[in-house]
């Protein structure tokens, strides 16, 4: 079977949809034509959204620049932390648009030069997002984006700006795939693992082998032994986090510094040292499979259904024209009229199918709401038993608020995903029972409440100073030490015992004061988070209700559309049967020739649809044979264990980049961890 990429498949599918729509329009089958043109529109507008995320200063923007081969496109200076989401997709010419929201809530789209992107997306040039930028959209005529891939550069998580964590987590709900960027020179932190947990929960990326890719940047700054250790450690942590076998999630080491340097050189030689050839092979292969599954399958189903809708009346007319007795014609007409009565009954407002569908949707709503409450209770339990007992989070309330917001946002995303899955199963089963080919519901989101704000002393009781209880414990320790030491060793022992007792007492006093402080703060934070819990629960439950209401309306609209299509098909059949009954022998012979030509063309269209569907299935199930040779067999990331600098065939390591042989550091790319500011 021939090999095609998704762009070629999409183009062929679009041509087929247009061809069938024209055929339906020529026969005045308006509903079939409308459905085909809507499928073509969805195909043309379809995007695969790849969210690039991670903590501050991990090289996310540099990585996006390297993928689209534009070194200075997105700002990468260590002082210019990304604070606004930026999307990079395909366009016939390079351009950028800023979406701004004014104080009154009105939005404005403003065209900006590419070299002014930093003025809107960085904390240093746009502190506190004073420009009120909501999104920066960049379009580039890059062939890698032509298939509808959109790269999303997000603000870093886990830093001093909690709204950045909430913003990034919220954007995960729209992700088809996630590239998580970490650092080869430092193990995954607790906050990174927490965010990865939210990402797996909130998106459709977690369970899918193509949906989550972890990239370790600055691979050229670690020795081969350190690279192997870091890769093993990262895989083990991901396996524990996801519950999947070690190695199921792709973990790839790269050096963006070497990649950008290679691009700047203009060399056509292979760029194996940077690790990017393997990374991009894994990334684009996965996106190709997801695009085939998410964007191409449904239009081809619609095309197949349209072929059948167009063929049935032709076949009926051909059979009627070839009849030997009028009994055949009477039987066919009776069957068509019975089908018409059935469809008319189903289309009536009080039809049983509407009542049945609404009843099933109501039951699903009840189950989903109960499950949502369970999930929200689980988040609250984690907050009370884990987050509030993490001293690092207690001491950094902005980070605590960001993590709690992210947890609720992840629940909202997971609930929307589950609702979509179960709605599709319900509607598909319903359609099969009633003989109607319903399509799945469209993707939907549930928005959570925005970033939380916690006050350190809100509602806290006034506590006595620390000095008095610490001094009291110190004095008590000194007296006890002096008494014991004096009893055993005399005056010298009393002095030594008093000193030792004083120290022990002071330490005990400090520990007790710290414990009391944490207890008080914990109660304070629990009270504030308890109020936020109620708000989050109301917003998410309300969002679920809106999602289900919208899905129910869409399901009924889809059913009505399909019934209108069936009405058209049956009407066309009855008209053709009537014409066949009135046709003379010579008219029947001439009509047979016309129908044979139409029939042949539709059979060819059906064969093309079947071929395209088979190619889509092949793309979805393709093996890793298109990856670089060294990566096949033992898992594609294993080939890069030696990291940048290793040859593809032997795994031997060359000179360390940046050392010896005149190599120079590149100040415009990834920054060594020692020089990164603590964000």
Description of the structure:
The chain is an alpha/beta fold. It contains 16 helices and 9 strands. It is globular and about 130 Å long. The relative contact order is 0.13.
How many helices? 16
What's the number of extended β-strand segments?
9
Kindly provide the radius of gyration, computed on alpha-carbon positions and rounded to a whole number of angstroms.
33 Å
Helix content: 55-70%
Outline the secondary-structure elements.
Elements lengths: L5 H21 L3 H16 L2 E7 L5 H8 L18 E5 L4 E7 L5 E6 L5 H4 L11 E8 L8 E5 L8 H10 L5 E7 L6 H13 L9 E6 L6 H19 L7 E4 L2 H10 L10 H46 L4 H22 L4 H34 L5 H5 L1 H38 L32 H23 L1 H92 L2 H37 L58
Parallel strand pairs: 1-6, 1-7, 2-5, 7-8, 8-9
Antiparallel strand pairs: 2-6, 3-4, 3-5
């Amino acid at each position: 079977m021939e090999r095609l990429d998704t762009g070629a498949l999409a183009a062929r599918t679009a041509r087929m949809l247009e061809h069938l729509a024209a055929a339906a329009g020529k026969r005045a089958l308006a509903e079939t034509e409308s459905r085909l043109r809507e499928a073509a529109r969805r195909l043309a507008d379809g995007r695969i959204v790849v969210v690039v995320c991670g903590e501050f200063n991990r090289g996310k923007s540099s990585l996006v620049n390297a993928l689209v081969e534009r070194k200075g496109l997105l700002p990468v200076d260590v002082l210019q932390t990304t604070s606004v989401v930026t999307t990079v997709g395909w366009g016939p010419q390079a351009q950028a648009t800023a979406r701004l929201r004014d104080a009154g809530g009105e939005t404005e789209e403003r065209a900006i030069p590419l070299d002014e992107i930093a003025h809107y997306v960085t904390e240093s040039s746009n502190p506190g997002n004073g420009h009120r930028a909501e999104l920066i959209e960049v379009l580039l005529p890059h062939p890698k984006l032509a298939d509808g891939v959109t790269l999303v550069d997000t603000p870093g998580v886990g830093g001093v700006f909690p709204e950045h964590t909430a913003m990034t987590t919220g954007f995960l709900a729209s992700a088809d795939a996630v590239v998580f960027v970490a650092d080869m020179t430092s193990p995954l932190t607790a906050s990174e693992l927490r965010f990865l947990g939210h990402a797996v929960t909130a998106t459709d990326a977690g369970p899918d082998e193509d949906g989550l890719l972890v990239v370790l940047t600055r691979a050229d700054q670690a020795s081969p032994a350190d690279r192997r250790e870091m890769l093993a450690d990262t895989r083990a942590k991901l396996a524990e986090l996801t519950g999947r076998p070690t190695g199921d999630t792709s973990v790839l080491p790269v050096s963006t510094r070497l990649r950008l340097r290679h691009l700047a050189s203009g060399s056509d030689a292979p760029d194996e040292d940077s690790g990017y050839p393997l990374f991009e092979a894994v990334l684009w292969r996965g996106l190709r499979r997801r695009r085939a599954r998410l964007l191409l399958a449904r239009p081809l189903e619609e095309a197949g259904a349209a072929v059948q809708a167009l063929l049935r009346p032709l076949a009926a007319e051909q059979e009627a024209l070839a009849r030997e007795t009028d009994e055949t014609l009477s039987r066919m007409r009776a069957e068509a009229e019975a089908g018409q009565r059935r469809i008319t009954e189903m289309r009536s407002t009080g039809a049983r199918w509407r009542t049945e569908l609404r009843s099933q949707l109501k039951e699903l709503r009840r189950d989903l709401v109960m499950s949502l409450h369970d999930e929200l209770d689980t988040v609250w339990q984690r907050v009370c038993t884990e987050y509030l007992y993490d001293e690092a989070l207690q001491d950094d309330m902005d980070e605590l608020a960001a993590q709690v917001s992210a947890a609720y946002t992840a629940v909202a995303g997971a609930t929307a995903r589950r609702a979509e899955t179960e709605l599709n199963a319900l509607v598909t089963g319903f359609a099969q029972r009633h003989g109607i080919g319903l399509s799945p519901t469209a993707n939907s989101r549930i928005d959570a409440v925005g970033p939380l704000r916690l006050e350190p002393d809100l509602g806290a009781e006034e506590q006595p100073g620390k000095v008095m209880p610490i001094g009291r414990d110190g004095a008590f320790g000194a007296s006890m030490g002096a008494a014991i030491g004096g009893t055993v060793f005399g005056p010298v022992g009393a002095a030594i015992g008093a000193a030792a007792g004083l120290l022990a007492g002071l330490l005990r006093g400090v520990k007790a004061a710290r414990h009391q402080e944490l207890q008080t703060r914990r109660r304070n934070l629990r009270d504030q988070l308890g109020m936020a819990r109620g708000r989050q629960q109301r917003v998410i439950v309300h969002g679920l209700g809106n999602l289900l209401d919208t899905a129910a309306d869409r399901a009924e609209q889809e059913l009505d559309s399909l019934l209108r299509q069936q009405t058209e098909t049956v009407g066309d059949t009855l008209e053709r049967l009537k014409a066949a009954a009135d046709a003379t022998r010579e008219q029947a012979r001439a009509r047979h020739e016309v129908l044979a030509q139409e029939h042949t063309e539709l059979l060819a269209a059906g064969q093309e649809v079947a071929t395209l569907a088979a190619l889509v299935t092949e793309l979805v199930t393709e093996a890793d044979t298109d990856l670089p040779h060294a990566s096949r067999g033992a898992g594609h990331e294993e080939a890069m264990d030696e990291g940048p600098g290793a040859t593809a065939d032997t795994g031997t390591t060359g000179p360390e980049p940046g050392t010896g042989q005149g190599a120079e550091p590149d100040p415009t790319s990834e920054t060594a961890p020692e020089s990164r500011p603590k964000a």
